[in-house]
Design the sequence.
């Protein structure tokens, strides 16, 4: 069976785990080349992972007939322009999150892909891991009864103390909702279905941030986006969801997670930024822990791209498809912006859940 060939645009911090998994774990894809505005990054990737080609720029990559799929791992505010250029060049595209910085730009990309007969999808893919897939199966089976509500919590004190280049987290396309919200919104709609309405309150607690990590120690970042967002969502099935995302909070005793409240019990779904973790359920007494029933509980970034590649090859809908990434973008944007207009925002898009992941296949084989 033919391996689908992938070209990387961007070889920044997150690219390492992609390169590791796509060259060593997933057997049905092949990385054929990389490019980056900082050439040294691309050179290191070529050397460390044995990548055949180093392109001078993304346009050279787009012009390579060997490349089936472009992986867009540029900065968030660059996702739209890079994805659009790749689609215009006739390439299928899988983009890091978010799909674009606004729903309007995201909708343009979705339409462009459809008009050109191309497949568009993207991160996050953690919802395909063992934890969320197991939780979905349990919820769908009625294990905790009918879902009444769900709540997600992502809280930290920001990225400027550890990230080597943290400025973009506080600019357009960044902030806790568009940076970390994709993991939570994507997981929640895969557990509960589409969101129909959203509203929120938000704030910028610290208008300026001083970087304490290298190599930009001492530089000051002007914050342009909300850094603490408390959102409320209504799901199509009637469940009410809440989501707190913050770059303003010092560590708490509670780790990041999702809680799902059913008529017959409460479930804790572990941090959706990860693929595994512990699923726990209580019915009013002691908490019980449940085994994960699906594969890929370790850091398996690239899982969604591997599934996407198989879908392109086989003519099916990828699980990490653009209907999902666009719906998540519309929901997150509504949560990020609802405070500006002080109103409930109608979510116009919807998401049809795809089939669960297959189990029992050899490691690195998805179909």
Sequence:
């Amino acid at each position: 069976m033919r391996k689908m060939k992938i070209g990387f645009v961007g070889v920044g911090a997150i690219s390492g785990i992609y390169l590791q998994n796509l060259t060593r774990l997933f057997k049905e894809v092949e990385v054929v080349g990389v490019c980056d505005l900082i050439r040294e990054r691309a050179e290191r990737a070529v050397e460390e992972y044995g990548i055949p080609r180093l392109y001078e720029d993304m346009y050279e990559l787009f012009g390579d007939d060997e490349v089936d799929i472009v992986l867009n791992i540029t900065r968030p505010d660059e996702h739209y322009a890079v994805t659009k250029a790749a689609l215009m060049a006739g390439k299928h595209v899988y983009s890091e999150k978010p799909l674009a910085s606004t729903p309007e730009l995201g909708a343009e990309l979705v339409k462009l892909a459809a008009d050109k007969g191309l497949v568009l999808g993207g991160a996050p893919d953690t919802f395909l891991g063992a934890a969320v897939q197991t939780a979905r199966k349990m919820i769908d089976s009625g294990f905790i009864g009918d879902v009444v509500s769900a709540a997600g919590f992502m809280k930290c004190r920001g990225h400027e103390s550890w990230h080597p280049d943290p400025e973009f987290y506080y600019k357009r396309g960044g902030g806790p909702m568009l940076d970390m919200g994709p993991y939570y919104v994507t997981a929640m709609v895969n557990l509960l279905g589409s969101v129909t309405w959203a509203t929120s309150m938000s704030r910028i607690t610290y208008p300026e941030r001083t970087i304490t990590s290298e190599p930009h120690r001492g530089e000051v970042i002007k914050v342009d986006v909300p850094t603490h967002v408390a959102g409320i969502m209504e799901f199509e099935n009637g469940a009410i969801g809440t989501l707190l995302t913050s770059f303003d909070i010092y560590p708490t005793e509670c780790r990041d997670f999702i809680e799902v409240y059913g008529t017959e019990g409460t479930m804790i779904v572990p941090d959706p930024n990860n693929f595994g973790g512990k699923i726990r359920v209580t019915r009013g007494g002691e908490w019980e822990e449940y085994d994960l029933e699906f594969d890929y509980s370790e850091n398996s970034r690239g899982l969604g791209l591997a599934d996407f590649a198989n879908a392109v090859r086989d003519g099916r809908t990828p699980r990490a498809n653009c209907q999902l990434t666009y719906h998540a973008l519309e929901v997150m944007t509504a949560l990020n912006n609802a405070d500006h207009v002080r109103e409930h925002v109608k979510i116009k898009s919807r998401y049809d859940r795809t089939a669960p992941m297959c189990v029992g296949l050899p490691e690195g084989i998805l179909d």
In short: The two ends are 11 Å apart (CA to CA). The chain has two domains: 4-126+300-319, 127-290. Residues 4-126+300-319 form a domain with the Rossmann fold fold (CATH 3.40.50.720). The mean pLDDT is 96.
